[in-house]
Amino acid sequence: MVYLKNLTAADFLLCLSLPIRISHYGGTSVIAWQLYCSFGASALFLNMYASIIFMCYVAANRYLKIVRPSGTHVLQSVRTANIVSMVTWVCLLAPSVAYNILFFITQKPLTSIPRHCGLFFSASVSLMFKIIHTFSAIIFLLVSISLVFFYYSTSRRVLQAQQSQLASSEKLVKSRRNMLVLVSIFCVCFAPYHLVRVPFVFLLNSCTVGPVLYYLKEAATMLSVFNVCLDPLVYFFLSKTFWDKVRKASRRANIQQANTESQSTEVKLSIIKSRATSQTSEL
Predict the structure, then answer these.
(1) Model's pTM, two decimal places?
(2) Do 224 and 96 belong to one domain?
(3) CA distance 129 to 118
(4) Is the CB of residue 180 less than 8 Å from the CB of residue 151?
(5) Gap between the Cα atoms of 199 and 109, Å rounded
(6) DSSP states of 125-165
(7) Is the pLDDT reported for residue 87 higher than 90?
(8) Which CATH number covers residue 113?
(9) Domains in the chain: how many in total?
(10) Which domain holds residue 70?
(11) Contact residues for 266 (Cβ-Cβ < 8 A; gap 6+)
């Protein structure tokens, strides 16, 4: 539950950063581009990789529940989850803050509206930009391998349980389905972005492929932002607390609707009775 809460926080912060990204498309000033290339880019980086890493944590936690159903492993404790989450946010915030500081200290002065953020970069910012995205690609690759491993291991345990006709096979099938949802969302949202992003970073100033990669990168970024819409599926399938709250909310809505209908029925009956009484008195 701790990792799902942090995943929700990452999605919420990403939604808050979207206006900066949207405004730069119709921006007619250098300041709008400066805000986008500094705060907008770092906010997208921070929240995207927070989502990627916390998805991996959620998958690892589900896998540990299968391997260690008793929940005795140290990584399954709430305290450990809080510490891991805090360290993750700090590790993601550090390069984001460093990038923004270096960007504003060394940015190139521009009088016309740039075509891309690379025109603001000094040599030091350009180098830092490439280093950050290289490490980001490595993180994505490691998380991808981890998710495939977790799904493969879960599928293998399901097969073993079905062959042995164990009572827990149905629960394992459900766990495999949840893992498949997580892996599918991860691949759909983040794989295209990284396939385009890494070449774009290193061929940013190329006159031939640079513009093409820019538009591909923007399209892939929009697809990665779509992760915010798909993450509720993760909460729906993986969080029992979330599902219980949805049930309670639907029950509350049904009760309120029933009360409203009963009150309206009583009002109608009282009106009919009053009319009937007035008619009899007139007679």
Answers:
(1) 0.76
(2) yes
(3) 9
(4) yes
(5) 26
(6) HHHHHHHHHHHHHHHHHHHHHHHHHHHHHHHHHHHHHHHHT
(7) yes
(8) 1.20.1070.10
(9) 2
(10) 2-238
(11) none
